[in-house]
Amino acid sequence: AQTVTQSQPEMSVQEAETVTLSCTYDTSESDYYLFWYKQPPSRQMILVIRQEAYKQQNATENRFSVNFQKAAKSFSLKISDSQLGDAAMYFCASMDSNYQLIWGAGTKLIIKP
Amino acid sequence: NAGVTQTPKFRVLKTGQSMTLLCAQDMNHEYMYWYRQDPGMGLRLIHYSVGEGTTAKGEVPDGYNVSRLKKQNFLLGLESAAPSQTSVYFCASRYTSNYGYTFGSGTRLTVV
């Protein structure tokens, strides 16, 4: 069975600085997708970024980028120029061949003004 | 706006009571899912449906039942609520062979 591990229950960063959230996963699939979701206090699950495993190039969405290390099964999220609105729970998830999402336990990101 | 709508948003139940959570989507998605979210844990799949009239068990199905009589609706039932079912419940949907999940805003259920 696939597993996703987020080893940082909580992270804090100064506003305008850069922070990296860690995620490792375990899968026997050869083709899969990886995701980062953001959950603000409103509870809404918001897709931040996704990565197709067959693509070597790291995905980027504005201030959000990933460091995808396929051999190491690592998928970290880098947030540049952190803003107060980035404060939220961040969840890493992998998708198996049945398109089922496997979730990590989440990392709470605190932004210090 | 198109999307996934969950009702109710909040509910308090007494142990042993029953209730039904409703999930409705207007995007003509085939797949629908019910998850629960507990502190310190990621979302866990309760049940899912691959189309109208079909349902399947997920990771934590015990104590829950589901029905998908209409394509746009996916109901989650608790027949006899227990304090262990206190959680936030999320519904999600997607197209077949598409990795784009759309989530509802969640239902916070407290069982006392």
From the structure provided, what is the oligomeric state, counting identical versus distinct chains?
heterodimer
**Strand/helix succession of chain A:** EEEEEEEEEEEE
| Class from helix and strand fractions of chain A | mainly beta
Proportion in helices of chain B: under 10%
Q: Find the structural class of chain B using helix and strand composition.
A: mainly beta
Low-confidence stretches of chain A: none
Determine Rg of chain B (CA atoms, Å). Answer: 13 Å
Distance between the termini of chain A: 41 Å
* SSE topology string of chain B: EEEEEEEEEEE
Taking the sheet with the most strands of chain A, its summary is:
6 strands, mixed
- List the total number of helices of chain A: 0
Helix amount of chain A: under 10%
Report strand % of chain B: over 45%
Number of helices of chain B: 0
Report mean pLDDT of chain B, rounded to a whole number: 94
Mean pLDDT of chain A: 94
Intertermini distance of chain B? 35 Å
Indicate the overall shape of chain B.
globular
* Overall body shape of chain A: globular
Q: Quick one: how many beta strands of chain B? A: 11
Number of strands of chain A: 12
